[in-house]
Amino acid sequence: MHSKIKIYLADDHQLLLDGLVAVLGNSPEFEIVGTAMNGEDLIQKATASNADILVMDINMPVRDGIEVLKEFAALPQPFRIIVLSSYDEIKLIREVMKLGASSYLTKQCAGENIIEAVEAVQRGEEYFCKTVREKIFNSFAGNNPKINSSGPNYNLPLTEREIEILKLLSLEYSGKQISEFLFISFHTVESHRKNLLKKINVKSTVGLVKYAIKHQLINP
């Protein structure tokens, strides 16, 4: 039997904490090992909790989430971090990801995506809810005139993330560029590229480009 994923929660709103406890604690896969309502308590207690995953707010009293992330970044991290925030500004997203977070969710989508985020982060993956992912993608390549963001929906057999990667690969962005700007590992980009080749049944990036043009994901 697999051991449960141990989760520590931190937010200064009791109602949100209660909601997260209800959602996550209801799963037999998870165990809530502690909660905190300010940054100081979080720093002191989370490490000792033996948590696998820390789910934390950015706006907290005493010490805010950025201070907390900086504190943890200076130490060997005992857990992976999911950030919850009411804000989706790209500058803030970039800052927290550079400080070691593995996931960023807006509070509006937390209830819908938190279980999926915990499972992905536990597997060592990065995870963003849809609104955050779109914000990151648009900040990187959204103004590129070759990207057709309003093309027809062909019900392609691809995930939203695969479509994003396909567009960027088709525009000749390197795997390294994509990994840096989308906050995903180079290995993840390569995995998506290989999966795209198999799904689309082509042998090279040239085939990916032709597919993207055919389905009006990019403009020739």
From TrEMBL:
Q: In which domain of life is the source organism classified?
A: Bacteria
Give all 4-aspartylphosphate modified positions: D57
Q: Which residues form the HTH luxR-type domain?
A: 151-216
A single Gene Ontology MF term assigned here is: DNA binding
Query: What keywords were assigned to this record?
Result: DNA-binding, Phosphoprotein
Q: Which PANTHER family match?
A: TWO-COMPONENT RESPONSE REGULATOR
* Matches recorded under PROSITE patterns: HTH_LUXR_2, RESPONSE_REGULATORY
Tell me if Secreted is a UniProt keyword of this record: no
GO terms of biological process kind:
phosphorelay signal transduction system; regulation of DNA-templated transcription
Organism placement in taxonomy: Bacteria, Pseudomonadati, Bacteroidota, Flavobacteriia, Flavobacteriales
Q: Does this UniProt record's set of keywords contain Phosphoprotein? A: yes
Name this protein carries in UniProt: Response regulator transcription factor
SMART domains xrefs? HTH_LUXR (SM00421), REC (SM00448)
Residue ranges annotated for the Response regulatory domain, each copy included:
6-122
What species is this protein from? Flavobacterium silvaticum
